[in-house]
Amino acid sequence: MAQGQLVIGMPAGSLANPSRGGNLIELLKAAGFPTKGYDQGGPTSFPLNSVLMGWDGRPQEFGAQLAIGEVDVAIGGDDWIRERVLEFHYEYGQTIELKKVMSLERGHVRVVAIHRKLESGQTFDMWLKALLAAQPLVTMVSEMPYIALEWFQKKAASLGFPDSHTGFSVQKFKTPPKIESGLVIYETWGKTEAKVLNGSVDFGLEITQTGSAIRNYGLEIADEIVNSETGIWVNPSIKDDPEKFELARMLLLNLYGALYAENKVLLLFNARSAGVDAILGYLRDNKLFGDEPTMNTGAVYTEFSVQMDVSRKDLPIAKVRYDLARLGATHIETIPIESCIPGLEVVTF
Fold first, then answer.
1. CB-based contact 226:111 (threshold 8 Å)
2. Where are the domains of the chain?
3. What is the rounded CA–CA span in Å between residue 14 and residue 12?
């Protein structure tokens, strides 16, 4: 790892695309970490923060890189981090500890088990139980073979087959099975639905947002296995390096501030002294401040500063401005908030 720098795993793919990545680039900019090169496929750098180093990679890889210390912090999904943790467990007999220290509230997907349509009245569990009783070797396909394996072993045990299908083999699609009994998982790079639909495997595991592609193929969802989102992940051993630990805390604090500020604005307005009580009552009734509003009191006017969430459907900002104006507020200004940091206590790892 780079000394004196915090190495950040920067995910290639949709998250690096300004129009598809849930505004990750804008989030980093609002946090004070504008990137250079990230939206062009790399190499990624942080021109205003030389203590940060971007390591461009696939989210699929970051779990392993965190485990071996190749990156200090990674931006990745719960699903792919879990996949790498399970791979270390099943293939190498190693237990690795990785920690999610912040949700970025982006990249929401579901990992689900899928299958062809069944006969009327037959459930997936009924069908799978009959399959396990009839076939010593079953097959499935997945981009995440080890999440698939963990799910299958738990499912088989719950159906009364805790021992007969414990063997497994993760292979490329569609190579000859390396085992005679258990589960063969064909690792794929997309179009999982087609392989299930056409009967190349018994069932599959798919990554989906809405499930529309699964429905378009005429397939059904048996189980929801993982509900995933993008977050900030670390190896807890980063605490053993005080310099990197402090850099990680700086990164997280500023990212939190940018996340906290999303959908929030600052309303600034004036009110004559005679109208202050009515405005305070309105702000209090609509929960538009915490302990107390920010007020600068002058001889004739009082200046108010109120933070507001513009995503509130029960109280649209347009109505608030109108209501305040009716109560005598003047010079009502709306200022976007780029960052709002409540305090250092928000960083808890």
1. yes
2. 6-107+230-261, 117-218, 264-339
3. 7
CATH of 264-339, one of 3.40.50.1820, 2.40.30.60, 1.10.510.10, 3.30.70.120: 3.30.70.120
**Predicted structure pTM score:** 0.89
Q: What is the pLDDT of residues 155-204, one digit of tens each?
A: 999 999 999 999 999 999 999 999 999 999 999 988 999 999 999 999 99
Domain 6-107+230-261 has CATH 3.30.70.20: no
CA distance 23 to 4: 28
Residue type, 3: Q
Q: CATH 2.40.50: does it fit domain 117-218?
A: no
Half-sphere exposure of 177 (CA within 13 A, CB side): 17
pLDDT tens track for 93-121: 999 999 999 999 988 999 999 999 999 99
- Give the count of beta carbons closer than 10 Å to the beta carbon of residue 198: 10
- What amino acid occupies position 348? T
Alpha carbons 15 and 10: distance in angstroms, whole number: 9
50: closest CA among 65, 68, 36, 62? 36
Nearest to 60 by CA among 86, 36, 34: 86
* Ramachandran angles phi, psi of 94, nearest 5°: -115, 140
Can you tell me whether residue 151 is helix, strand or coil? helix
